[in-house]
Amino acid sequence: MARRRTTDTDADDLPRYFVWVRGLEGPEPQKWMAMDLGVGDWKRPLVLAYLELPADERQLSLSMLARRYPPPRVDLP
User: Fold this and answer.
1) pLDDT per residue over 24-76, tens digit each?
2) Distance separating alpha carbons of residues 62 and 45, to the nearest angstrom
3) Is residue 23, in this structure, part of any structural domain at all?
4) Beta-strand (E) ranges in 1-70?
5) Is residue 73 included in any domain, yes or no?
6) How far apart are the C-alpha atoms of 49 and 57, rounded to whole Å?
7) Is 58 helix (H, G, I), strand (E, B) or coil?
């Protein structure tokens, strides 16, 4: 199946943020549509680092983004 070219409107529909969260075995990459971390939000302690992606990087896979933006160093408790 051929990949079609991403347009500007398509880029707006893709996740905007690349996020490293605390996983069971260390940092795990995720892509989020919005950074909705309100006061008392359960996600806040799980987020280790985040980056708002430029429009031309929003279609990249998690593995490609993880290589481009490595996980932060995390001290184990």
Assistant:
1) 888 999 999 988 765 566 666 788 999 999 999 999 999 999 999 999 887 75
2) 21
3) yes
4) 17-23, 26-32, 47-52
5) no
6) 17
7) coil
Q: How confident is the model at residue 8 (pLDDT cuts 50, 70, 90)?
A: low
Total structural domains in the chain?
1
Is 76 a member of any domain? no
Tell me how far CA of residue 2 lies from CA of 5, 63, in angstroms: 10, 20
CA nearest neighbour of 49 among 67, 28, 34, 33: 28
Q: d(Cα 38, Cα 66) in Å, to the nearest integer?
A: 26
DSSP letter for 73, please: P
Sign of CA pseudo-dihedral 74, 75, 76, 77: negative
